Every structure is written in C-alpha cells, then in structure tokens.
C-alpha cells in the first residue's frame, strides 16, 4: 500500500488526468463508491488500481474492500490518498472514500444476435443511458449494443445512473448498428409514430432487439426502416413526447408483463 | 425595448443574482428557450420580464415571441442582451436566445382531493422530478403535490426535464403530505416491498394519489402506513431497485393501460 499526500506526485497527476476522460474510448474507467467497487470484485476481476481515503480506512465497508484488493493486487497498485486529493478525482459532492481504476470490458459482438437485446442509437445524455442500462438489467436483458455518439457507457455519470447494471450486462460500444441488422435472428423493434401499433395492443415477442434513439432526432431513418416491429406509446397531448429512458422502460416492462415474467 | 451591453448594468446584475436561485422558494423562475416561453404565453400570462439575444432577433421564433411580448409588456420589461451577457444567465451550453422571468403560480390546495394525483415525498434529484412531471402530463394527471425537500419544481433543471409539462399541471410545493392524507377522497397508493401486490396483477382504480419518495430512503414511513393501495414492481435480481422516475412511469402507464385510455 502506498500513501500519496501531494498533488505533485506523478501517479496522482496521472490519475487526475484520467479523471477528466474516464470511460471514454480507449480510456480506463473510474468506479466510484462502495457499491460499484464491490460489484467489480464480485465479477472476479482485479482492478488496475484501488484508491482509498486514508482517513476512512476504519469504516467496515472500506476495510473489507481493502482486505479484498490486498489479496489480489501488488502493493503498488493500492493507494491511499488524503481526503483532499481523493476529492479531486471524484465526480460526486460526497464521495464514499474509495474508487477503483479499471479496464472496461470490450466484448466482441457475436456473429449472430438471437437473444433479447437493446440497441442505443446516439443516446447522448449520460443520465438516459444509465437509466436504460438499469432498466435492461431490471427486466433480465443481458446484451446492449451502442452506436457511436452515445454517452460512454463507462463514464462516471452513466455508471452512477446504472447503479451496478453494468455488471449484469454485456455492453458493446461504438457499433455500426445499421451493419448489424443482417446479423439479427430476432425482430428489430422501434418506437415510432409512423405505421405503428399501440404498444399495449401489440403482442410482443419473447425476444427482440429494441432500438432507442437520439433525444431530439429519434432513431436513424435506416434503422427505422429496418424495424419489423413498430410500436407507438400513446400519451395525452399535454406533452410532445416521452423521455427516451421512460419510453424504453415502458416497452421493456410491457414485454416482461406480456411474457409472464411476473 | 431596452438594450443592455454591460455587466455593470444594475438590471443585469439583478438578473444574474436571480439566475443563481431561480425557481427556489419565494423566488421568480427563469424559463429558458423558445418552447417554454411559448408555453408560458399560451397560458395567457405575461412574463415579468422578457430577455432576448440582440443578435438573434431576426430568427422567426424569436421575432414571433418578441412581437407577442411587445403586445403585453411595457417597453422597460423587454430587454435585449449581448450574446455574452445572455450566456451568463443560461444553464444550458447552447441557449436559444430567449428567456422569460416569471412568477411561478402558487396554487392553493383544494379542501378535498378527489382526482388522479401524484405526490412527491422528498424526491431530490431535479432530473427525476422533471421526468415525473412529464410522465404525469403524459398520462393526463393534472395535479402534483410536493413535500418540502423535493427539488424546486420551477428550477431550471426541473423545467428542462418537464419539457413543458408544468403548463399542463397544477403543482403544489412545500406541502405537508402527512397532513393531507385526511383530505383524500381517493386511495393513497405506494410502491413498496412490504405487504404489496404485483403492480401488474393489481386492479388499479381510475383515480388514486400515487406517492413516490426519496431516491435513497423511499416514501416516509407514516405515508407508507397510510397507503391503502400497495404495489411492488417485480424485477430481475441484477439490480437492487428501480429509479424513482422509472417506477413512477411504470405505475402511471399501467394504470392508463388498465383503465383503457389506449
């Protein structure tokens, strides 16, 4: 275990630089807080680096995490920082005294896609992406395929919104969705106003690939055209549209209701 | 119409101060962007102040808004600012060149509460509050009752999340919810894990007061105890819970589905 108390420490400087880009393409991710770090360890992976608040090591959850990483990491990959230094790396006002630096998985997309899935087409808002990942995990979906232009799945805000969902999912990023349509062995489903049936009057299949799109522009036209299952979510005219995270949850839970998972 | 180009202008300074607290208790609110300003005018109210980007007055939406406010406001309540000054007042990166300063309505709570409603108990995150308001408007609910400790309904982030829902709703803030239980002529409904039925196996009434609670702690115990309709939303064990905005949408749209609004 190594203690760092100076902003001029090279390892701290490197961490501080990482914190500005964490989770973006080709960058490592930072998991903040007890829950995410526990979840990472439960997946049986060692983090690249474990960082603790030196003044809070006596808290039971932190002590347990420290014991766990000490078992799997060499001493120089376990850091303690002063609370002030740690705060520079955190994106939340009140951190929990621990963060892991990890290499996000970059799984390979299978040749054929034949299971329940969600595709995200340029969903930009990290809160929306995080919420959708959480809803996917909540209905038992295991695979999420994201286009370029989506908020980075392993960025701090998406991780926070996901609340651990990342660890129940296989997430593919920077995928050319249009090029994947031919790999599908399940229907591609889209929410749209054109040529669409009421979601709640549609018999939904047990498995499909739902595609949800950009907050302003919706799903790209080529993907919309490729969709064989087209549903709309009727709502009162008082609003123009639904938030994409809400629309996704309504589709996924209606499918779960219909297939009798309840 | 009055033009302001200096940060030292007293009226600008006052606006800049307001922008730090807009929408909080006893403060005026700032509506940013074309859509919200149009919606405010459509409710037939004059804003307290209309502020435009002096360099974008030729855009059709802005010209139309300017013409509309010029009809209803004295000249000194219509300001044009340089883009730089306007940017100081905006909470979004790329503003649309217009904002209104308004007095948020503070409607009185009726003696009896007998209609479909949503109650919010210390929902802190402005994104969640905004999303729930938008979902309320989307299912045709007209009244929302919020406790102290909720994000301020007329704050910029809640307004943005609501996407105009505020104008379809009567929103009561800073209400003692426990003290309102006796006013109810509809069931109080809560999502809970204790003594609860599966949402999708429950015959939901046409009208009830749904109460949704604090992101970490849920609905306060006294309100939970007062609830006569108790439902749970089953989900896969991969997540510990659902986001409160998602849970609210699932309840409201399931009720809408059951009562056959679709």
Structural write-up:
Two copies of one chain form a homodimer. Chain A is an alpha/beta fold and 262 residues long. Chain A folds into two domains: 2-102, Ribosomal protein L30/S12 (60s Ribosomal Protein L30, Chain: A, 2-Layer Sandwich), CATH 3.30.1330; 117-258, 3-Layer(aba) Sandwich (Alpha/beta knot). Chain A has helices at residues 10-21, 34-42, 60-72, 83-89, 126-139, 156-162, 177-180, 221-226, 244-258, and strands at 2-4, 29-32, 49-53, 78-81, 98-102, 117-121, 143-146, 170-172, 188-191, 197-198, 209-213, 229-232. A seven-stranded parallel beta sheet of chain A has the order 8-7-6-11-9-12-10. Chain A has a five-stranded mixed beta sheet with strand order 1-4-3-5-2, sandwiched between helices. In chain A, helix 5 runs parallel beside helix 9. Chain A starts with a strand and ends with a helix. The model of chain A has no long low-confidence stretch (mean pLDDT 94).
Per-chain topology:
The structure is a homodimer of 262-residue chains.
Chain A: E1 2-4, H1 10-21, E2 29-32, H2 34-42, E3 49-53, H3 60-72, E4 78-81, H4 83-89, E5 98-102, E6 117-121, H5 126-139, E7 143-146, H6 156-162, E8 170-172, H7 177-180, E9 188-191, E10 197-198, E11 209-213, H8 221-226, E12 229-232, H9 244-258
Parallel strand pairs in A: 1-4, 3-4, 6-7, 6-11, 7-8, 9-11, 9-12, 10-12
Antiparallel strand pairs in A: 2-5, 3-5
Helix pairs in contact in A: 2-3, 5-6, 5-9
